[in-house]
# Entry
Amino acid sequence: MRLFAFLAMLLPLWAPACTAFILHNGGRTFVGNNEDSWCVEGRVRFVPGEAGRLGAVYFSSWRGHPYLPWTDQLGMNEVGLVFDGLTVQPMDVAPSPGKPPLEFNALTNRMLEQCHDVPEAVAFLRKHDRILLHQSMIFLADAQGRYAVVQNDTILLGDEPYFAVGNWRLARDTDMDAIPIPRLQQGRTLLEAGVAPTVDGAWSVLEGMKSCRKFLGNGTFFSTLFEPDSGLVHLAFYHDYEHRITFDLHAELRKGAHTLDLPALFPPNKAYQALQAYRTPFHQRWLFQGLMACGVAAVLWGLILGVWVLMNGLRRIRRLPVRTSWPLVVAGLGLVTLVGLVAVLLTLEKVFYFGLGDVHPALASLPYFLLVVAVVLILRAHRYRSKRWPLLPALALLLPALAGCAYWGFFLPH
# Structure
């Protein structure tokens, strides 16, 4: 079981692309974000300042995955410094001796507690080893319209009237027009054409950058629009921009520390309810743990069948009577395939929404191979009932996995 936990933490967890932007015009600043994920739970957390620390609001989300904690995705402090975390292409960098490394939540939360604007935040981040930003970047913005993109290998600064980012690692010579994220380019086009420096104008950019796919209507989990100069925070849920709410950060901080359930702040949303009803191991602990147990059991019974086949071979060499080995070999191959499929299901969330073939065409054939193996074993067990008991444990593992494959649409394209 430790192997599957290790793989879940080690392999990249694919998610839909997030987008963010800053608009600074006419003396007003807006910072928008579309948080795109398959999370089913979210919260808004208000943390007043004390002992010299600045108060802030944080927006967090959680998939339900037993090995992934709640994560503060973005936030704003009471003086208008905004951060947003975005997943980017992974890159390894050498450690920075003498600088303390911090995981993402600790790094960004301390930054909001201590820093007043982008220059201070960048200076704070330069004092820390950013090696843990292996697959993420921090987008910063403040009330003066300044912004920064902070990665483990690069820090980019700017103060243009508008700027937008997506899940793409940036360099100083990156051609922004060539980034292959259509929704990001849609937002950049809207900003370039000119939008009114108003709440409605900024929302039009967010709506143009939203994600809403045909399968389950999944996509943008929530959207935020910060006004860092006034402390107002506008919020929409699950790409529904008709129902928006607004928080006054300063008024909320005066209420003391409190946390709100994000989905509960909005009226029922059919698309969100469909996502909640869709069962995946990333949303259901029991399902994750059940698949993990299935994989471990498949490894153990596969080893037993392998030893059995080996002993049959030795008995055959010694000209002793043996059972037919080929059904055991077929069952063993099915269990090996099952272990590989379970590893994919527990580490790559995207397959539940885009199918196995989206990762690699060969993966799309795994459920069909398991189906053929199960049919062969069922026919064999039915015909030779006295010799079926070694095959029954394999069938007991394969049949629930096949039921899951059918439920997740792996036999038909999404």
About this structure: Residues 285-407 form one domain. The mean pLDDT is 90. The CA atoms of residues 24 and 342 lie 48 Å apart.
